[in-house]
Amino acid sequence: MRHTSDTACRRAIAYAHLLDLKQKFLEAGQRYAELSIRFPWLDDSERLAFIERALAAALLSSAGQQRSRLLATLYKDERCQTFDAYPILENMFMGRLINRSSLSSLEPLLKKYYPHLLQSSLQDSSGITSSIQDQSGKLSSITSSSVQKLLERALIEHNMLAASLIYNNISLENLGLLLEISASEVGNSKLLLI
């Protein structure tokens, strides 16, 4: 019986990793959350790593009802309160607006679980590592276009949903100021949510 369970566990882990590599973050997050509770014989450190991976995947996934359910599961899990990304999880779960500056707290989490996304585009076409300065002048290693796009998409979608809870009617310019993007980007992003 244990051999069958070990095989099922390894298969579930491999499937979650595959979903993660295919950038199906919502499904991967659900699988990681399931892994953190489904197999009680796993070490606490392994189960904690799975719940942290679920959090990372949930933060990168697209906004919607399934993501809200996953965020609720993670928010209610006491183990998540120990993570540096917990304040962002809390704000997303509560439907609060999130500033771009707060995304810097996700950098260690992304480096830990998504190094392939960071490494693939931290190098420009000449093979030289590139970096940008954030608003504080500090060099930021989250310069990869893929990770930056994923984070910004998730942040914009979340903030648009949060803004919809606050405002019944808002101009594109004001929504752009609220989301920290231009009005034309708001128009393009808005089409994605309809």
Instruction: Give the tally of structural domains.
Output: 1
Number of strands: 2
Largest sheet, strands/sense/barrel: 2 strands, antiparallel
Count of helical stretches: 10
- Anisotropy-based shape: elongated
**Secondary-structure-derived class:** mainly alpha
What are the segments in which pLDDT stays under 50 over at least 5 consecutive residues?
121-143
Helix content: 55-70%
**Helix-strand topology string:** HHHHHHHEEHHH
Portion in beta strands: under 5%
Based on CA atoms alone, the radius of gyration comes out at: 18 Å
Mean pLDDT: 82
Strands of the widest sheet, in order across it, are 1-2
Describe the structure.
By secondary structure, the chain is mainly α. Helices cover 66% and strands 2% of the residues. The chain has helices spanning 2-21, 25-38, 44-60, 65-76, 86-94, 107-113, 115-122, 145-166, 172-179, 183-193, and strands spanning 132-133, 139-140. The protein has a two-stranded antiparallel ribbon. A hairpin with a 5-residue loop joins strand 1 and strand 2 (139-140). The longest helix is centred in the C-terminal third of the chain and has 22 residues, at 145-166. It starts with a helix and ends with a helix.
